[in-house]
Task: structure prediction
Amino acid sequence: MLKNDSSPIWERPERQPRPVPVPLSREVVVQAAIALADAEGLSSVTLRKVAGALGAGPMRLYGYIATKEELFVLMVDAIYAEMLEGEDATGAWRARIARLAGHLRSAALRHPWFAALLGGRPQQGPNALAFTEAMLSAVAEAPGIDDIDTVFLATKVIGAYVVGAVCDEAADAAATRESGQTKAQWQDANWPYIQRVIATGRFPMLSKVAHQMTHPAPGTLFGRGLDRVLDGIAGTTSTSR
Amino acid sequence: MLKNDSSPIWERPERQPRPVPVPLSREVVVQAAIALADAEGLSSVTLRKVAGALGAGPMRLYGYIATKEELFVLMVDAIYAEMLEGEDATGAWRARIARLAGHLRSAALRHPWFAALLGGRPQQGPNALAFTEAMLSAVAEAPGIDDIDTVFLATKVIGAYVVGAVCDEAADAAATRESGQTKAQWQDANWPYIQRVIATGRFPMLSKVAHQMTHPAPGTLFGRGLDRVLDGIAGTTSTSR
DNA sequence: TATTGATCGATACAATGTATCGATCATCCG
DNA sequence: CGGATGATCGATACATTGTATCGATCAATA
Result:
């Protein structure tokens, strides 16, 4: 009860029961943040907006995270969890790796902000570790890759390729989305610039790429690149094409 | 001259000449931002602080950039320029590629914020394009890689690996720096967590990695991984080791 | 039933990116 | 050479952000 209230009881408003707060959890908070990022971009992920989407005050979130940066960390790990949903350890090693890589790629394209959070902070969340574990165990089944040092190196190479390739692809997607245009519109808007750069004559190889290359679908490119990487770690050229 | 000034001339302060503004340029602004990021981390790169470091008001910067995001874009491309300083197209193709990759890696370690800016935005600055051009021309010299499609795919694979590997390494460096500790302190602080994760028994491969692996220097690992990638695109296993 | 400890959110605050706009300078034209 | 014009600078302002503080409320315990 209010102790020092100068207004007489007649005018003093009655205590009204605190509205029952929506039950929250770290999971719910993170999912709300992810939904916001998916819908309006990473820069719209604001403690106020996240809390607002949950019908709570901003300070409520500090019961679940200590910092906005921690929210980002949780978001990234939640996406790793998404990749592993329904994943089992079946199939030949190359197929397993390709499947895992594909999961990461499609998750990154579903959540264009994901790639932007990948660099710059270590990935040590339980789900990120589970993803690495899955990669390690798939690699360990490859013939000729036995000692743990080789397994680790191969896994590192695969992981680095996948992350790097996905950063590339997602960057375009994010820029497109941020500009509020369609992919074609965005490419059309950038093409004149690229053309002028090429016209300087200082980029003969890029010119060849722009003019003479066939342009396979991004997914195809990703897969073929992964094949090259797997060839490298297997020390074979079996699946060249 | 002030037109509607009610104070009499006797009390009106004399016009003092505007202090000659420090001459600026996009280059100077970007270098100041880079210096700030190197010294105090990316989150300290503030338009006010950058301008302050140059002895100018914040709004002055808007003569050179339209947005803070544009400043970030320029910073990234400036680092690409750094990588190419003194670079020439000499040496065998594998050596050239290894040299270029090494430049990117060392630049990223010199500027721990660089990796965080890599994902999330397309790299189309003139220096980033020059870097890609150098990679393309080196790859084109590899025997058996002739048509432009193969050259592009190989370059994409190499670039993705390098970026991904560098993100990994730089993330640790950035986290270490951000925590204000030495690398050893930071690793010691994280080790108990990793140990508890492994103790769950759900990560047998990670356990092996943690306990049985020899831990080569990061640079060595980077180089060996690059060798695997180059093996893959060359379709040979020549330099295995 | 009184007390304690946890939890919620109103309020507050400093810092940020950036719009606005008057004041100042440099330049050009007569 | 003097006045007009256009560019450039920075003071001020504002909405928005992350987060500290703290009183008010609830649930559990003694």
About this structure: The CA atoms of residues 172 and 183 of chain B lie 8 Å apart. The first helix of chain B runs from residue 26 to 40.
